[in-house]
Design a protein that fits this description.
The chain is of the alpha+beta class. It has 9 helices and 4 strands. 37% of the residues are buried.
Length: 244
């Protein structure tokens, strides 16, 4: 059954974590809002907004990303991946592995929120330029304390894996590995100097990132037009003054 991913067109954002799982698994899916409603029925931004706004939808998502799979609608990135994991073969079979993978994903979600708040520390309704002094202060703590703390923690998780440091959980690829790859990609774009310093102290994370980039399906996706480039409308934004 076709998976329908709904997310804002033009940015990677939180939807990219779901895209990577679908792409790496070779899943049959459509990126609904990126379609052209005039060319393909049921696609386009209006189709996404219909699911969010229609009174006929019993379980409306609060915001994108969300996944529609038959009669199932799942919102929130971590919940979507929790749903997709066993269906795409991207999570272990035991309950311990599933819960641990979900915990890792939730921790990645924490970093994503903190990365977003470096350029919007006061309010999302304000432009970056309207809160620049606060952003400078927020970014300093993020790049000097939080990035190293998160990456060294993930490094310790990889180092402690009884099956080896190639993956976060067990001896096979999980959606958490793909999401950690995307997190590193985003941090390298937004904070290249700070990320370079932090990754020197997190060699297992750096190795996982490089390994994921060589994954056959993932590499093909990254080189394709389906991969939206990072830009200053997404979560990870590069403002040179915030990085040092």
């Amino acid at each position: 059954m076709l998976y329908e991913l709904h997310y804002w067109p033009g940015i990677q954002g939180r939807g990219e974590f779901v895209r990577l799982a679908l792409e790496a698994a070779g899943a049959d899916y459509v990126d609904v809002a990126r379609g052209r409603s005039g060319e393909t029925p049921g696609q386009g931004l209006a189709a996404m907004m219909h699911v969010m706004d229609s009174p006929d939808v019993l379980h409306p998502p609060f915001a994108p990303p969300f996944l529609v799979h038959g009669k199932v609608i799942v919102g929130q990135t971590a919940a979507i991946l929790l749903y997709l994991g066993p269906r795409l073969g991207l999570v272990g079979k035991s309950e311990v592995q599933r819960v641990w993978t979900h915990q890792l994903q939730l921790t990645i979600a924490d970093v994503v929120v903190e990365a977003h708040d470096t350029h919007h520390p006061i309010a999302t309704g304000l432009y970056y330029e309207d809160q620049k002094p606060e952003a400078l202060r927020r970014a300093k703590g993020f790049r000097e304390v939080r990035i190293p703390r998160f990456l060294t923690w993930f490094d310790s998780v990889l180092a402690r894996n009884p099956r080896g440091s190639r993956y976060l959980v067990g001896g096979r690829l999980s959606y958490a590995d793909l999401s950690l790859f995307q997190l590193v990609e985003g941090l390298q774009y937004a904070f290249p100097k700070a990320s370079r310093r932090a990754l020197k102290k997190a060699p297992c994370v750096a190795a996982l990132h490089d390994s994921m980039a060589q994954h056959r399906r993932l590499a093909a996706y990254l080189a394709s037009e389906r991969r939206i480039a990072f830009n200053e409308d997404g979560i990870f934004r590069h403002y040179p003054e915030l990085d040092s």
